[in-house]
Please model this.
Amino acid sequence: MKSRTARILLLLLLSVSPACAPAAAPRGTLSGPPAEKGSFRKPDLVELVRLDRTVRLDIRYATPNNFARRAVYSEARAFLQRPAAQAMIRAHRALATHGYGILVFDGYRPWSVTKLFWEIVTPQDRARGFVANPAKGSKHNRGCAVDLSLYDVATGAESAMPSAYDEFSDRASPDYRGGPKELLERRDLLRKTMEAEGFEVDPGEWWHYNYRDWREYPILDVPFEKIPAAAPLAARRR
Ligand SMILES: [Zn+2]
Model:
């Protein structure tokens, strides 16, 4: 009787064992970047301030001062793939003739952070395209998108623009025509200068620029602390 009970218990255990297996990712969540077909260039993320120390940084995602209300980067650093970084530096130097320099809010963004953003925003904000879908990845994940504004070289102060960075409103559009003319002209000068170097502005965000070669780079999920300060990043994908 005892052994029969034990056998029944064992059978019961075996029959429920799939539920006891290590938990799979809940339905609808992703455990890693999407698999992509095709060949890509070898990633070569470059720290922007290493190309020109006069580029200024305000890495909001390394502080709680962002829409996520928490630091999502371990370090206040900004990177782009080398050709995009070099193009942005050329724009920075061209803007100096107008008395401006580039102020960077964000560059390369690990895929895990894109996934986190997707999970914390409302379904309405997802539908409005305020955050990238991690199932597709973001151009920031490829190291080919940069969020930036201008600073005044004479004073060092951030230059006013028609909206704040990451302001989810109509004023964020690069085609918004309201407000002071001076601010619109400054925003348009930034756009013209970036476009001349191969960047395209996002239709909903005056601060977001995509580099023309973004399709040639893979989605990456390398945390900042793993990116060497000076040496180029070796190819690494998950
Ligand atoms: Zn952006």
Summary: The longest strand covers residues 145-152. The chain has one domain: 40-226. Strands lie at 45-47, 56-57, 79-81, 100-106, 145-152, 199-202, 205-211. The longest helix spans residues 2-20.
